[in-house]
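Page 47, continued from p. 46.
Same chain as before, 77 aa.
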Amino acid sequence: MNDPDTRRRYEIVVRGRLSTRYECAFDGVTLVPRNGRTMLRAELADQSQLYGLLNRLRDLGIELVSVNAVSQARDAC
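Result:
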């Protein structure tokens, strides 16, 4: 089991506006549409989960713009 204190927050930006139906495809991820892009906010346990999410984006043909680790002290909402 993963320790919640070791989880890291990420902000992943993709090109285009993803509809809310994608929230089901990305369990535990919040979608925030902005100016022709969508930010996915996620709290992930490890690099394996991050790569799994990135692979899912690739498999769906969604264009990746950026991936950023966010400081634990910063509020994701």
